[in-house]
Amino acid sequence: MKRYLITSPEHYTQNAESFAQKLEASFVRHKPDMALYRDKQNAGYKELAALFVFLCKKHKIEAFLHGDALLAAAFGADGVHLTSQQYDAISKAKEQNILVGISAHTKEEVMQAQKLGASYVTYSPIFASPNKGEPKGVEALKEVLEVCSIEVFALGGIVDERQIKEIAQTNAAGFASIRYFYDV
Fold first, then answer.
1. Burial tier of 112 (Cβ tally within 10 Å: 0-12, 13-18, 19+)
2. Contacts for 148 with CB less than 8 Å, ≥ 6 apart
3. What is the pLDDT along the chain (184 residues), one digit of tens a residue?
4. CA 180 to chain centre
5. Distance (Å, whole) CA 177 – CA 125
6. Cβ-contact 23, 55 below 8 angstroms
7. How far apart are CA 167 and CA 77, in angstroms?
8. Could you say which DSSP state residue 18 is in?
9. 39 neighbors 48 (Cβ within 8 angstroms)
10. What residues does each domain of the chain span?
11. Cα–Cα distance between 126 and 132 in angstroms, integer?
């Protein structure tokens, strides 16, 4: 089961030196397979995105940038992770010859991502997560996995090994989390 680290500005900061230290500490401790640089409001996004991709490559972790396929391709990232409002951008992102992930919150969105050729989806929220609405639960995740062939990563409220074990009992490609990976 793959492990997908997602950054957030409240945990990793917008200071390059501190960002690098915290990110590398998370990489060393948790050994994710994939990582997403997600900071929607950082004026210095490009600088930290370049640093993020460099650190991912150094640690042999697949690097994804949030929402901008052109920037992801330009910086040598492995892929882009689109928001649930960017389904119309999947085909353009695929033209960059990078992996294309997208956020999904319903079975219909998962099927739409699959139809449009996305590489994977994050399906959320599985468990209770701040400001993310009612959790879907592992049973809803299983129902989605029964009807799709696209890689699905469980996301939302995943903070401990008990939850990861529950997800491991499904056919999910893995899990994605912010808080599970951040502890420094």
1. middle
2. 110, 111, 114
3. 999 999 988 887 888 999 999 999 999 999 999 999 998 788 889 999 999 999 999 999 999 999 999 999 999 999 999 999 999 999 999 999 999 999 999 999 999 999 999 999 999 999 998 777 899 999 999 999 999 999 999 999 999 999 999 999 999 999 999 999 986 4
4. 13
5. 10
6. yes
7. 27
8. H
9. yes
10. 2-177
11. 10
95, 90, 49: which is closest to 72 by C-alpha? 49
How far is it, in rounded angstroms, from Cα 180 to Cα 153?
14
Question: Which architecture, in CATH terms, is 2-177?
Answer: Alpha-Beta Barrel (3.20)
C-alpha dihedral, 3 to 7 to 87 to 108, nearest 10°: 50
Those residues with Cβ within 8 angstroms of residue 59's Cβ, 6 or more apart along the chain or in another chain: 24, 27, 28
Name 6's Cβ contacts closer than 8 Å, sequence gap at least 6: 35, 36, 38, 155, 176, 177, 178, 181
CA 151 – CA 35 distance, rounded (Å): 16
H helix or E strand, kind and range, residue 151: strand 151-155
Q: What is the pTM of this model?
A: 0.95
